[in-house]
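Re-run requested by the PI after the first attempt was lost when the workstation crashed. Everything re-entered from the original request form. Ligand of interest: uracil.
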Amino acid sequence: MSEPFAAVEIISTKRDRNELTDSQIDWVIDAYVRGVVADEQMSALLMAILLNGMNSREISRWTDAMINSGERMNWNSLARPTVDKHSTGGVGDKITLPLAPLVAACGAAVPQLSGRGLGHTGGTLDKMEAITGWRASLSNEEMLKVLQDCGAVICAAGSGLAPADKKLYALRDVTATVQAIPLIASSIMSKKIAEGTGALILDVKTGNGAFMSAPEQAKELAKTMVELGKRAGVKTRALVTAMDVPLGLTAGNALEVRESIEVLQGGGPKDIVELTLILAREMLDAAGVTGKDPEVALRDGSAMDHWRRMVSAQGGDPDAPLPKAKEKLTISAEASGEISTMNALQVGIATWRLGAGRERQGEKVQAGAGIEIHAKPGDTVKEGSPLFTLHSDEPARFERAKSALSGAVTFGKVERLPLIVDRID
Ligand code: URA
């Protein structure tokens, strides 16, 4: 079959800072998925996009072409409106775990297709898999059944959803082209739009532990994604939130499940509870649901009830003890005083080195590995009092984790981003 374009022409168009036409974009994505455009050609095009950018028409068309590479889910048979939340990822960010059952308890349906951790940021599926028996992979029919019965489902995106993104993301990872706003925005939004949610709240992280460390860049990413969502008919809003300090008091899979359960029991760290409630209210508002107040649903046990049902529906045992690492090591404060900063990136790298994360896709993670944080910026500690407890099955990992934490905590006047940096509607 003769092809309407040559990849070389499309690459040179973008190299020379010109706009790609709609039909060039449609073709290049489709031809890449078919194997007609080679990896080295797509790599060159991705680098040209990273260097020269795309305008909003090009980004929107690129996103549509990625959506059209696979299936589009629909939840029309559900009685409740659907709403999802997507976080760009951070350290200790376990918000999805209490949030999905909480929003379900307040009357919306939450189809939460999630990912695994790569590098220093954790992934929701790895956390949920710390629960004995819990299964991440569901068929579309199973997903619908869990949503109907429990109001929320957290599971892996099937291979039929935006397959172009799977191929492109793997290529970006090895060609230093991940950090381009048009490519990040289209990658995230193609999956979220194909997932078929009616409304979407984006939690775009900023600060040293985030993908986009500079707030201005995070805001630009948030605006680009909100525009893409709206164009596709999804009610989309974004919050730009702090990731200069880890969220909550734990990082690592089973430790984060434990902390999420504390929140569902009406306790938990203040920042986690605050962000969970803010996001829940945004989600319910965007979905047009005016049922129960999320604060009440945390207090009266209804969010916990939805969690237990959701976990059980996917084969998990909500009463099974969570896995614990075989070894622990406590790190103490080297000075007395008020903690000024706690570097989220360093805590994330240390958590990863303890075995909670993976270096390559497909690697196994340790369910019990991670870090407990005993004091945060604003807390006053005494020299010798515990700052962190490291957890791992392999004590040989402690030294490298400790070195990642070197200098992660400073003392003096508190310096941190506000929890909510910006809101884009
Ligand atoms: N998450 C995604 O799904 N895609 C990106 O490009 C970055 C983060």
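Saved to the shared folder this time. The mean pLDDT is 96.
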